[in-house]
Amino acid sequence: MEIKLEEKTLDALKWIVSILNKNNIPYRIGGGFAAHVYGSSRPVNDIDFSLSGEYFPIIVAETKDYITSGPKHYLNEKWDCDTISLNYNGQEIDITDIDTLRMSNKEQTEWFQTKDNFRKFPNKIVSIAGIEVSLINPRDLIAYKKELADKDHQYQMLDVQAIEKYIENN
Hints:
By secondary structure, the protein is of the alpha+beta class. The protein is 36% helix and 30% strand.
């Protein structure tokens, strides 16, 4: 599978994955980046990593010159979690603590722990320009994207359609 990425995105991916691998930090990539790998035509805005917050001290030490925000607690109507945001040569990277990550349901009437809801399938290991990366399983990504889709975020369903096509063909 050939994945087309901007040079800055590929450079940032190589950089952060090498740090994670060097420190034996388990992770998975989700969001729009994973959807792009699974066939969505939307451009990649950022690279979303989920990992245990127990590794945040290592991440901070290794990436301190690139941190734009955090580590901090982030809370809005959809998300409740601890995060770190980086900018590596123009490419945004968001790292979320999977242990604290909660998401509101589509109706925004209750919170649920995403670790329990969207980790039903094993991560998928793919090679991107020779870099082995761990992606959220496409079935988990579909469930997650469907929760995010609403009238203001119709693009989530475009991602879902692309991911469903990927599953059919693979």
